[in-house]
Amino acid sequence: MRLKSLLIAVGALALAGCDGLQKRTVQNDPAFEARLRAYLLEHPEVIRDAAAKLQAKKAAQARAVLAEAKPALERDPRDFVANPGGRATVVQFFDYRCPYSRAIAPDVDRLIAANPDVRFVFKQYPVFGSASDYAARAALTPQGKAKGLALHRALMAQKDLNVVRTDRILAQQGLNPREVDAAARNPDLAEQIADTRELALKLNLKGTPTFVVAGEIIPGADVERLEAAIARARSSALSSVGEALTRNPFGH
Question: What is the rounded distance in angstroms from the CA atom of residue 171 to the CA atom of residue 181?
Fold first, then answer.
């Protein structure tokens, strides 16, 4: 239906001229549709050009949204970050109970170790109910953040995560589950998760895991695409540093 509407609009503009649409109703007009079909068969490039312009417009809009959201994506001080001194940045939206988030977790660990000059920002985006929400809030507490990647890996490794299993993992990490639970009730953590959900909605993210790397959105556990995006981001960051040093070699 969207394609038909696009074709009607394109054909109407081509056939009717600048003011031909003002009083014409093109829907349910067999004669007009016949003329339109004949025109498009004779000029198929019209469809190609219109589709290309539409895609370019959508891409430009997506880039504008990502640019506007970049501070919230990459520099929210509330998020846990691995390799915080890195120049390039990878952002991951994830859920500890999401099987695809868990499936790619070992690859994310490998990429963190292999790319110390790349920041990895973890966005808690619980979408699998109250157990996911509890694990997310526990990881966001000061106690949880202090355990860093060790706690993150342990939670990711647990199948069928629930509140009891989360508490057991917290204890295994040397934390007091009751103290963590009390800290997890801080309304600031609920607000942080709500902000992440709002950000995901703004970016039109469809689920977890989703990665954002240098303006590129990578849905799902697509390791090859993620690795390629990281390579491009690292190269771009190194080029930027090189250009800056060339312009100002003494750093003044």
Answer: 12
- Token pair, residue 207, equals 């689920």
Domain ranges of the chain: 2-69, 75-242
Q: How far apart are CA 161 and CA 180, in angstroms?
A: 17
Give dist(CA 6, CA 133) in Å, integer.
42
Output DSSP code: residue 206: -
86 C-beta neighbours (distance < 10 Å), count: 19
Q: Are 156 and 112 in contact (CB under 8 A)?
A: no
| Count of helix runs (H) and strand runs (E) in the chain | 10, 5
pTM: 0.73
CA 59 to chain centre: 15
DSSP strand pairing (88-94 vs 118-124)? parallel
Fold of 75-242: Glutaredoxin (3.40.30)
Q: Rounded CA gap, 223 and 109, in Å?
A: 12
Q: How does pLDDT run across 152-183, given as a tens digit for each residue?
A: 999 999 999 999 999 999 999 999 999 999 99
Q: Which two tokens stand for residue 65?
A: 């949204």
